[in-house]
TrEMBL record, chain A:
It comes from the Bacteria. Keywords: Cell membrane, Membrane, Transmembrane, Transmembrane helix, Transport. It is found in: Cell membrane. It holds the Pfam family BPD_transp_1. This is ABC transmembrane type-1 domain-containing protein. It is a multi-pass membrane protein. GO terms for cellular component: plasma membrane. Residues 67-257 form the ABC transmembrane type-1 domain. GO terms for biological process: transmembrane transport. It comes from Schleiferilactobacillus shenzhenensis LY-73. Belongs to the binding-protein-dependent transport system permease family. The chain crosses the membrane at residues 12-33, 71-92, 104-123, 135-156, 177-199, 236-256.
TrEMBL record, chain B:
Keywords: Cell membrane, Membrane, Transmembrane, Transmembrane helix, Transport. This is ABC transmembrane type-1 domain-containing protein. One of its GO terms (biological process) is transmembrane transport. The keyword Cell cycle does not apply. It comes from the Bacteria. Pfam families: BPD_transp_1. PROSITE patterns: ABC_TM1. It is found in: Cell membrane. Its main location: membrane. InterPro entries: ABC_transporter_permease (IPR051393), MetI-like (IPR000515), MetI-like_sf (IPR035906). Signal peptide: none annotated.
UniProtKB/TrEMBL annotation, chain C:
The chain crosses the membrane at residues 9-29. InterPro entries: Bact_solute-bd_prot1, SBP, SBP_1_CS. This is ABC transporter substrate-binding protein. Belongs to the bacterial solute-binding protein 1 family. It is found in: Cell envelope. GO terms for biological process: transmembrane transport. The lineage of its organism: Bacteria, Bacillati, Bacillota, Bacilli, Lactobacillales. It comes from Schleiferilactobacillus shenzhenensis LY-73. GO terms for cellular component: cell envelope. It comes from the Bacteria. PROSITE patterns: SBP_BACTERIAL_1. Coiled coil: none annotated.
Length: 272, 313, 459
């Protein structure tokens, strides 16, 4: 076999596999453009394509409200984690204090405890605080993240000693050092961290499922379930359009942030 | 100062950065408390306290109002471990986790090996293969519910046309399991793919060059160079995938509801239904602790064997 | 690109994020809880319900009508999932910022045991509201010690729906008003065979309420102590001849290849409806409240009959299904009064008539049939009246009163048994297993709730 034939063969299989992997999304997008009547009759090859399902989804369902809620929740959690994890990671990277090892181990331990095992008491806590069905209840429990602390600490440790010494020499205090040197130096990790956290919490399901009770606070993923449950005869066109709408920000972030994710994987091991 | 404008300035960045934490700490300080306090408070309220409360609640029975009714000792544990439903749930969870976990990694390895060389166009395919990474369980569920729908879905109709009598897979215990495994593999592949791609690409070309000189076959190269080089990543991924799949919830909630005949009532879902459906918090808490034990063990295992590689590389 | 942007703006971004976090913290700390008082001076009443699809849309419209009919209150409807899910949410959030003022719920036993409501009777008495304008047969199920606990807003009964056009197309005789199991099986088989498999003759959704109704129609209870009506039930009665007959019938249709199993999961019910509307299913059984969806979306002639009865047992009648409206105890007097005003509005002849026309629920107000719109609808299609006729034709006994079971896990285990049986497992074994599981649940419930149950049954 000649080299070019080999290549054609290679690309043929690659394209086939890529199409298979992408099929669920591609078919979903296609279905979202078809009238439900055509889908229900099994005419998937129909050519009556339009954006009507999207218009219907936006006009007749609160999907935009759900998306706004998810956006607020994901941004709040990312911001909250950014502040809290930065502070904690700074302490572990640059400060010396009593029980450092033990406290570090304490953070470590939380990564072994599944959130699923904490939902009952957490629900009761939120309930007592009066935070059911609120942004506070949806976000504050996630403000601390042992994983985030690890990832940022790892990045902070890369800050050269000389910079640290120099900053102390010219009399920078902790916050100045953090803001003027550590954060800019770790920007790539911080971007990875931010994108990753946003994506993770955009996709949150279980917690919003049990703590939201109205469309005012319901987020996209549980909103999708809500719309599915409110539907009594499988209005496929609109359901697909809603799912694709919810998917768009995810795809956007993946596309823009892909090289950061890859870098993050190589240095920190995301999703640990 | 303009330092931050160019942190890569060679004057400021020495080539050899010492890595010791101790060495870089120039003065002792109590400031640490203020830096750690916010995180510790949140963790105390939303992680440690609930774990303790879950343990306590697992020793109580629950009344119809969802209040702890009476102390029952370990009888909730005795009950779940003598309950055929819970045991079935455990067994099915393990079947799912292992099938889906191995499937994810096998597919990811296959995809990564297809695009790991520097051929033109591979970049596009890498992006395509990685793109399932951030897709949520809810969206994936809706996409696959459509594909597998017996009367309008592409796969459902395909099954019907090749003569499968029960082409509504969701209504069949094995079929429902297959759907969940397929969805789980599809969703998980992107992440494992990116990891394995990185591992494959980090194998130095020199190794292969030397092997070529020694006249090794491609089979020998695969087994003696590639596999040992990516095996730490494979191991790391296996544990991570297994932990992740133990927590599978969304897809069950949206696709099968735990059925049929409890075939897909995996443990994380059972905790939820017992707590928030049946309001039996005592039973749910003891099931949650069993889940915790499994996941804690897997995580410990991972820390123990991959700590150095992952965090202190 | 991001990196460049970050490079220039990092300090601003960091500062903004920190400020956002602080502001949110402050906002959250000072956020007043969900307030009953709306901005325009109206009292806001939150209303949790389980109406989806066209029924949910019509409910929203009726609520809107109430909000426009006066200026004192504003009712905010929220769909909270199925009755079971909504009930769990309700109980898990009692005495919190989200507790609804008005709750729609079908599980009378559990709501009574939980007891966090004001009996509607108090408002009836204070307001001299005439309960005689409502059907007594439907009211009776919601009374305790003669007092009305909650208002039966949406009453229904189970019916069989069938696609008349398909029957005609394949030359199958239309169903009689009260079909027997064998009549349905024969029709289903004929439909499947004559359409060469393009149509599945029948289906029975894995929805435990359906076999419960089919059992009631054979004068069979599902729990002891007269269906838990005379005292707290102590055992389930699932492995009964009645239940066995139901599932022998179903397994027969499965064997014929004329039965479609839609399985479980959140979309099973919608898939069943889509199958019927798409002309792929001949007959299915569902609450009369599915008529609204069918009427809206069906592009063919369809019919409604009484619930099927076993061949050797004359139809005994079914229990009134549906749900009632409950007023929360944990609310101010003004809010509770608002809830009562809302209930009165919803029970008026006009609203109940609109409700029956749009949904297939039974208008509970006797005067509704005289409302021109409903009278015209019944004249046009007499089958609209099948659900109420079925209730009126039924006998009044323990079976048709329906099970009264607190914190029931009946649905869960009877559902599992149905899944097993549909998968081919032995009927008696599956029913026996379900019975054992439910019995275990009943024992636990009775033990953990001894005091509560004693209060419920102290008559």
């Amino acid at each position: 076999m000649t080299t070019s034939l080999k290549h054609i063969n290679h690309y043929f299989w690659l394209t086939l596999v890529a199409l298979l992997m992408g099929a669920p999304i591609l078919i979903g997008i296609w279905a979202s453009l078809l009238p439900t009547a055509d889908i229900a009759a099994g005419h998937l090859t129909s050519t009556n394509i339009s954006l009507n399902n999207y218009i219907a989804a936006i006009q007749t369902t609160p999907v935009l409200r759900y998306m706004a809620n998810s956006f607020i929740v994901a941004i709040l959690i990312t911001a909250g984690q950014f502040v809290l994890c930065t502070l904690a990671a700074y302490a572990f990277a640059f400060l010396d204090f009593k029980f450092k090892k033990q406290i570090f181990a304490l953070f470590l331990i939380t990564m072994m405890l599944p959130f699923e095992a904490q939902i009952i008491p957490n629900f009761q806590t939120i309930r007592v605080f009066g935070w059911l069905d609120s942004y506070a209840g949806l976000t504050i429990p996630f403000f601390a993240s042992a994983f985030g602390v690890f990832m940022l600490r790892q990045a902070f440790l890369q800050v050269p000693d000389e910079l640290h010494e120099y900053s102390q020499l010219i009399g920078l205090n902790h916050l100045q050092f953090l803001f003027k040197i550590v954060l800019p130096y770790s920007r790539s990790t911080l971007i990875t961290f931010g994108l990753y956290m946003f994506l993770t919490h955009w996709n949150d399901y279980l917690w919003p499922l049990i703590t939201t009770f109205s469309d005012s606070y319901r987020t996209t993923q549980v909103g999708l379930k809500q719309l599915q449950a409110q539907d009594t005869f499988s209005n496929w066109g609109v359901i697909m359009a809603t799912a694709i709408l919810i998917l768009l920000p995810t795809l956007l972030i993946l596309l823009v942030g892909q090289r950061y994710f890859k870098k993050g994987l190589n240095t920190g091991g995301l999703k640990a | 100062m303009e330092l931050h404008k160019n942190p890569d300035n060679p004057l400021l960045v020495p080539s050899t950065a010492a890595a010791s934490t101790k060495g870089r700490t120039l003065r002792k300080t109590n400031a640490a408390l203020w830096f750690l306090l916010p995180s510790l408070v949140i963790l105390a309220i939303f992680t440690f306290y609930p774990m303790i409360m879950t343990a306590i609640e697992s020793l109580f029975s629950t009344n119809v109002r969802g209040e702890l009714a009476q102390f029952v000792g370990f009888s909730n544990y005795a009950e779940i471990f003598s309950d055929p439903l819970f045991l079935k749930s455990l067994v099915n969870t393990f079947i799912f986790v292992i099938t889906a976990g191995l499937g994810t990694i096998a597919l990811a390895l296959f995809l990564a090996s297809m695009v790991s060389d520097k051929l033109r166009g591979n970049g596009f395919f890498r992006t395509a293969f990685a793109s399932t990474m951030g897709i949520s369980g809810a969206v994936a569920s809706v996409l696959f519910l459509f594909l597998f729908n017996p009367s309008v879905g592409v796969i459902g109709l395909l099954l019907k046309n090749i003569g499968v009598k029960q082409n509504n897979l969701v209504a069949d215990p094995t079929g429902a399991m297959i759907i969940l495994v397929v969805v789980s593999i599809w969703m998980g592949t992107g992440f494992s793919f990116l990891n394995l791609l990185g591992a494959l690409q980090s194998v130095p070309d020199d190794y292969y060059a030397v092997a070529d000189l020694a006249g090794w076959s491609s089979w020998q190269k695969t087994w003696k160079i590639t596999v040992p080089m990516v095996s730490p990543t494979l191991f790391f991924l296996l544990v991570v995938e297994i932990i992740g799949k133990f927590k599978t919830f969304t897809e069950i909630d949206l696709i099968t509801g735990g059925g049929p005949d409890n075939a897909t009532n995996f443990i994380a879902y059972k905790v939820y239904t017992d707590a928030f459906g049946n309001r039996n918090f005592g039973i749910a808490a003891s099931e949650a602790l069993v889940l915790t034990a499994i996941i804690a063990f897997a995580t410990w295992f991972q820390f123990r064997f991959t700590e150095r590689k992952v965090y202190y590389k | 690109m991001i990196e460049k942007f970050w490079h220039r703006w990092w300090s601003l971004i960091c500062a903004t994020m920190a400020v956002i976090a602080v502001i949110i913290g402050l906002v959250v700390a000072t956020t007043p809880q969900h307030q009953a008082q709306a901005s325009n001076g109206r009292i806001t009443l939150s209303f949790w319900h389980s109406m989806n699809g066209p029924n949910g849309q019509l409910l929203d419209k009726l609520v809107d009508g109430f909000n426009k009919s006066q200026t004192k209150y504003k009712v905010v409807p929220q769909y909270e999932g199925s009755y079971g899910l909504a009930e769990s949410k309700y109980i898990n959030t009692l005495h919190t910022n989200v507790t609804p003022t008005i709750m729609q719920q079908s599980d009378i036993a559990t709501m009574t045991a939980v007891g966090d409501y004001v009996p509607v009777q108090q408002f009836v008495d204070a307001d001299h509201y005439d309960l005689n304008q409502l059907y007594p047969g439907i009211l009776s199920g919601f009374k305790l010690k003669g007092d009305l606990q909650s208002m039966p807003f949406n009453a229904s009964s189970s019916v069989m729906y069938y696609n008349k056009d398909l029957f005609k197309k394949y030359g199958v005789k239309p169903l009689s008003q009260s079909p027997s199991y064998s009549e349905i099986r024969a029709a289903a088989k004929a439909l499947t065979e004559k359409s060469k498999g393009a149509v599945k003759g029948a289906t029975l959704q894995i929805y435990p309420w359906l076999p419960e109704q089919l059992a009631a129609n054979q004068n069979s209870v599902v729990v002891n102590k007269n269906n838990g009506r005379s005292s707290a039930a102590t055992a389930a009665e699932l492995n009964t001849p009645a239940m066995q007959k139901i599932f022998t019938w179903v397994q027969g249709m499965i064997k014929d290849g004329s039965f479609q199993n839609f399985g479980t999961g959140s979309s099973a019910s919608a898939n069943q409806m889509a199958g019927f509307l798409g002309g792929k299913i001949g007959i299915f059984m569902q609450s009369s409240a599915a008529a609204g969806t069918i009427a809206k979306a069906a592009k063919f002639k369809w019919g409604e009959t009484f619930t099927a009865h076993a061949d050797d047992v004359p139809a005994n009648g079914v229990a009134a299904g549906g749900a009632s409206l409950w007023i929360s105890k944990d609310k101010s007097k003004a809010e509770q009064q608002g809830a009562w005003e809302f209930i009165k509005y919803m029970m008026a002849p006009k609203q109940q008539a609109a409700w029956q026309i749009g949904t297939g629920y039974i208008a509970v107000n006797k005067a509704s049939v005289k409302v021109p719109a409903l009278a015209a609808a019944i004249k046009k299609n007499p089958e609209t009246n099948v659900p109420i006729k079925q209730l009126q034709a039924g006998k009044v006994n323990a079976a048709t009163a329906g099970p009264f079971l607190v914190n029931s896990q009946m649905d869960q285990y009877l559902g599992t048994a149905m899944q097993q049986i549909y998968g081919g497992k032995d009927i008696k074994t599956s029913l026996k297993e379900a019975e054992n599981e439910v019995n275990k649940g009943i024992r636990d419930t009775n033990k953990s709730n001894a005091a509560i149950l004693k209060a419920v049954f102290a008559q």
